[in-house]
From TrEMBL:
The chain crosses the membrane at residues 12-35, 44-61, 67-85, 97-116, 145-161, 181-214, 226-247, 259-281. It is found in: Cell membrane. Belongs to the ABC-3 integral membrane protein family. InterPro entries: ABC_BtuC-like (IPR037294), ABC_TroCD (IPR001626). Keywords: Cell membrane, Membrane, Transmembrane, Transmembrane helix, Transport. It is a multi-pass membrane protein. It comes from Thermohalobaculum xanthum. This is Metal ABC transporter permease. It holds the Pfam family ABC-3. GO terms for cellular component: ATP-binding cassette (ABC) transporter complex.
Amino acid sequence: MGLVEILSDHTLQTVAIGAAILGAVSGVLGAFAVLRQQSLMGDALSHAALPGICLGFLWAGSRDLGAILGGALAAGALAALTVMAMTRLTRLKTDAALGSVLSFYFALGIVLLTLIQRQAGAGQAGLEAFLFGQAAAILREDLQVMGVLALASLGAVALLWKEFKLVTFDPVFARTLGLPVVALEAVLTVMVAVAVVIGLQMVGVVLMAAMIVAPAVAARQWVTRLGPMVVISAAIGMGAGVTGALISAMGRGLATGPLVVLAASAAVLVSILLAPGRGVIWDWMKRRAERRALGGQRVLTAIHALAAEHGDPEYPAEQSMLDVYFGGGTAAALDRLEARGAVRRAAHFRTEGVHWVLTPQGQAEAEDILAGGEGDRP
């Protein structure tokens, strides 16, 4: 099947649109969750949605998406409020509360799922697909539900942007301004539950946490401000969603949900490696440049010390002697110093090896380094 045929496929278009909606909402709300150090919140709420899925099915008597997502949202919101109550009314830390809530709700969901599967009738067949997602089953009508939830969430973020921003970075100051901090935190947490609900049919209960965290983590490597981070996080989420859908369509038997998560994880890996100022490679290059600069300074001040000891500013320092003093490896540093005009080769006896002399520029640089307290012991 050619690329044009794949892109014109009705099912792929539906899945790609759904994945893009999920990525955008997850990216925006995940940015707040990550900055509030609640990265595990998505994991807890996604697992907590399972009993809501089962109760929604039992209430509707069929796999009605509206009832199932409504139950999932109610269970997720209840779990979020439970976490907040546990952290505020007890001495438990957030991670302990999240772990407790996740375990309890997921265990309850598994019990309900087992009971449903024992009932007679074929209506419950495939309900366990919500554990890992079933993107191919998404319909155009489902996109309308996802779109409404997404617009409601993004609209709330836009309407309460300043309040959410202040609560995220300085809740104490927000409280002194008279803002309802607890209510705002509850709204943010419940909105994360909304994002989880949107992604249940796409990536499932188990993998949904990655869609909350991964785009935000990747975006955080590139920027230092909330606004750009939210935009980039949403873009990464949408890109991961569409990429996963395309790869799934081009492969045979490849599940869309895990591929979406893998695409988001790949974005995290690339960001951690390549992001300017924060990436591992940039950090390695910076440290390497600093080591090289420090090595050049040490060699420069050593030649300066030899010249001062002999009372001759143009005293030729033998390279082999410098190698002995520093344990070897001065050739590269001397070549770099020569390239920028700090030292020059000195004409000397050929049998005695290469000698180096400070130029006026090198003399001034060495004195500046020593005046700053560096290179006293090169």
